């Protein structure tokens, strides 16, 4: 093994051989297909022979098999026209999926017809407005708060009050003018209701609630002994609150009255997780109040105040005209219309877990997780999010961008192509695992349990061989790279799961031995290169180079072992980046202290002054001299994919979804 010598914060690693460029940029298109999308098959001699072995220059036996073709998937046009920017964050990121955005939402308000306000994680404020076609237009609004937002209320005059988990309250409206109000004195805000610009109430799961009186500021009132969590009102002199245990508090403009919604008993330690805690209130058009409670295990229930008494509402959340004509939702995510004839199960619509409703009978809004939808009359606006879970994003040199994941219509894999103006969808029925993606020129390759080729017209399946010695039970690709002459696929044999490397050249499949001592990383290994003689294989802190004849001895980068590197990005034979480590054709140099950037998930570089690496601690940029501080991301979630064709449009993917845009500039440096 080749180890490193550390000198004054800079690590120098000796390595031999030349370095390949990246298979995803700037190369001649590999393995051309004919007009049908089927790559050229082997010649007569090669096509007639059985799988056989040939001696590899590196000492292993390379087995080959002829090529077969499988399913052809033609592009489908989505049933709705959407772009690649549903909404834009304060830092310039465009949400691609989910739509309209990807931050978890906590509360919404819609007392006025035609618009809604919702708030959530990381300072997210989502404003929805009904357009002339009766569907919703969405925008993210920067109110100057970066902490998680927990409560929102729009008053009848259009003033909007927003509360945070840090106890802050901001005020503004659709035209802007957002102002931080003096802090009411709560550790966090759990409920808000605004009557007007100078009249509002704030609750924070404390026995003291606060009344905003405009020039008079906040006035505290002790309504204990219970902690008040939610508040709603019909008018400034008709305000209702709910305590976490199920008592009601009513303000008539002069005094408070304590009542009973549905007092909840508290259990012992072992069953307390099923106890219900009141946390939300709402109002129907006729003035009917409702209050909802939920447990730590996801149970939920609701009560409504009608004819002066609280009774079960048979729903967790409601919006509409009255108890006789409204939409009801359960905490598990389904919304259903309730008419004087009873529930209409034809209108039963799944919105999402943790569903909250607001608005009116024929102009209603819903949030669930990061999702937001508008409904008019008996319908809801269509879901325009392609994926229920995204997996990979890849920007091809042609300018096309490919996304893969699990589709919203079923549990099968889905691929989507953005050509700069339109989306095309490729349902991969009966393919359970989303494929990884690479490209070379206009040719795009996808692989999971099969290899798929896009030649500009369709996706053509090229099944992995199953004749001995290829695994008859299948094979699963985890990483692939397209060179001018072949596609290389790193993955696992089934069912044993042992690692394997396949090479496909348009004529045959070939098993290529992996380097001696190679052990795949459970968090992911990566393969990149631009030619059959320039491949890089990386696992944790170890990298191997293949020169077309043999694998090099492993190079081991410095580090504690707590953090690994999952990606490598060659720019040229003498210019390779793997997170903070750079190879100049002779040796590796550490441009940052070991472990200082965290786990390296992905790296992309346009030049040596435009290197971006996505890590467990954030997105960083190397400008040729120093690494920046973490750049803002769309959410604080787990982002692990990065791709681009230029530094003005980075595409990133993670558990929160897919977003793209120019990273904030200039970055902040330590």
Question: TL;DR of this structure?
Answer:
About 50% of the residues are buried. The chain is mostly beta strands and about 675 residues long. Mean pLDDT is about 85; it is low at about 1-60.
The CATH top-level class label of one domain: Mainly Beta
* Total of DSSP H or I helical runs spanning 4+ residues: 1
By CATH, the architecture of one domain is named 7 Propeller
Biggest sheet architecture:
6 strands, antiparallel
- Please tell me how large the radius of gyration is: 29 Å
Beta-strand share of residues: over 45%
Can you count the beta strands?
A: 60
Strand order of the largest sheet: 1-2-54-53-52-51
Extract low-pLDDT stretches: 1-60
CATH topology term of one domain: Methylamine Dehydrogenase, Chain H
* Helix content class: under 10%
Explain what you see:
The N terminus is likely disordered. The protein has one helix and 60 strands. A six-stranded antiparallel beta sheet has the order 1-2-54-53-52-51, with no helix packed on it. A six-stranded antiparallel beta sheet has the order 3-4-46-45-44-43. Strands 5-42-41-40-39 form a five-stranded antiparallel beta sheet, with no helix packed on it. It has a domain of 314 residues: YVTN repeat-like/Quinoprotein amine dehydrogenase (Methylamine Dehydrogenase, Chain H, 7 Propeller). By secondary structure, the protein is mostly beta strands. A hairpin with a 4-residue loop joins strand 12 and strand 13. The longest helix is centred in the N-terminal third of the chain and has 5 residues.
């Amino acid at each position: 093994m080749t180890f490193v010598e550390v000198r004054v914060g800079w690590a120098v690693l000796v390595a031999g051989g030349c370095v390949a460029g990246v298979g995803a940029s700037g190369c001649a298109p590999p393995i051309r297909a004919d007009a049908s999308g089927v790559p050229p098959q082997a010649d007569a001699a090669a096509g007639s022979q059985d799988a056989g072995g040939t001696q590899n220059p590196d000492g292993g036996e390379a087995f080959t098999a002829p090529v077969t073709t499988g399913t052809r998937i033609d592009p489908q046009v989505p049933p709705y026209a959407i772009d690649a920017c549903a909404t834009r964050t304060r830092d310039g990121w465009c949400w691609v999926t989910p739509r309209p955005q990807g931050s978890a939402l906590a509360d919404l308000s819609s007392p006025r017809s035609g618009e809604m306000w919702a708030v959530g994680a990381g300072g997210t404020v989502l404003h929805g407005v009904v357009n002339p076609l009766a569907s919703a237009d969405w925008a993210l609004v920067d109110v100057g708060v970066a902490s998680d937002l927990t409560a929102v209320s729009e008053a009848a005059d259009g003033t909007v009050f927003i509360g945070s988990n840090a106890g802050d309250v901001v005020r503004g409206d659709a035209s802007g003018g957002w102002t931080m109000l003096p802090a009411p004195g709560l550790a966090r805000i759990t409920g808000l209701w605004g009557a007007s610009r100078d009249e509002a109430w704030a609750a924070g799961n404390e026995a003291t609630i606060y009344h905003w009186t405009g020039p008079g500021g906040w006035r505290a009132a002790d309504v204990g002994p219970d902690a008040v969590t939610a508040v709603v009102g019909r008018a400034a002199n008709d305000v209702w609150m709910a305590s976490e245990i199920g008592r009601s508090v009513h303000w008539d403009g002069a005094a408070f009255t304590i009542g009973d919604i549905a007092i909840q008993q508290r259990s012992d330690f072992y069953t307390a997780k099923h106890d219900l805690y009141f946390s939300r209130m709402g109002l129907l058009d006729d003035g009917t109040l409702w209050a909802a409670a939920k447990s730590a295990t996801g149970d939920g229930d609701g009560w409504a105040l009608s004819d002066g008494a609280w009774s079960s509402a048979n729903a967790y959340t409601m919006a509409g005209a009255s108890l006789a004509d409204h939409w009801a939702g359960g905490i598990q995510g389904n919304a259903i219309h309730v008419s004087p004839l009873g529930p209409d199960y034809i209108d039963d619509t799944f919105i999402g877990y943790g569903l909250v409703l607001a608005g009116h009978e024929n102009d209603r809004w819903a949030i669930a997780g990061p999702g937001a939808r508008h409904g008019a009359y008996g319908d809801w606006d269509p879901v325009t999010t392609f994926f229920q879970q995204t997996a990979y994003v890849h920007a091809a040199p042609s300018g096309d961008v490919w996304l893969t994941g699990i589709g919203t219509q079923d549990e099968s894999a889905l691929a989507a192509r953005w050509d700069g103006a339109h989306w095309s969808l490729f349902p991969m029925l009966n393919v359970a695992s989303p494929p990884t993606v690479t490209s070379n020129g206009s040719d795009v390759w996808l692989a999971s349990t099969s290899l798929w080729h896009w030649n500009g017209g369709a996706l053509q399946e090229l099944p992995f061989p199953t004749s001995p010695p290829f695994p008859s039970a299948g094979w699963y690709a985890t990483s692939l790279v397209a060179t001018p002459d072949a596609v290389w696929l790193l993955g696992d044999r089934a069912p044993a799961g042992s690692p394997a490397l396949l090479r496909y050249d348009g004529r045959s499949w070939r098993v290529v031995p992996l380097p001696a001592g190679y052990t795949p990383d459970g968090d992911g290994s990566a393969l990149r290169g631009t030619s059959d003689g320039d491949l890089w294989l990386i696992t944790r802190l170890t990298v191997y180079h293949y020169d077309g004849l043999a694998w090099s001895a492993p190079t081991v980068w410095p580090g504690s072992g707590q953090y690994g590197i999952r990606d490598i990005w060659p720019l040229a034979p003498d210019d390779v980046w793997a997170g903070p480590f750079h190879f100049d054709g002779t040796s590796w140099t550490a441009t940052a202290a070991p472990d200082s950037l965290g786990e390296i998930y992905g790296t992309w570089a346009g030049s040596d002054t435009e290197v971006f690496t996505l890590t467990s601690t954030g997105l960083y940029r190397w400008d040729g001299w120093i690494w920046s501080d973490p750049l803002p991301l769309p959410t604080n979630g787990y982002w692990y994919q990065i791709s681009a064709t230029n530094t003005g449009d980075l595409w990133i993917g993670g558990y929160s979804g897919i977003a793209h845009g120019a990273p904030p500039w200039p970055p902040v440096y330590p």
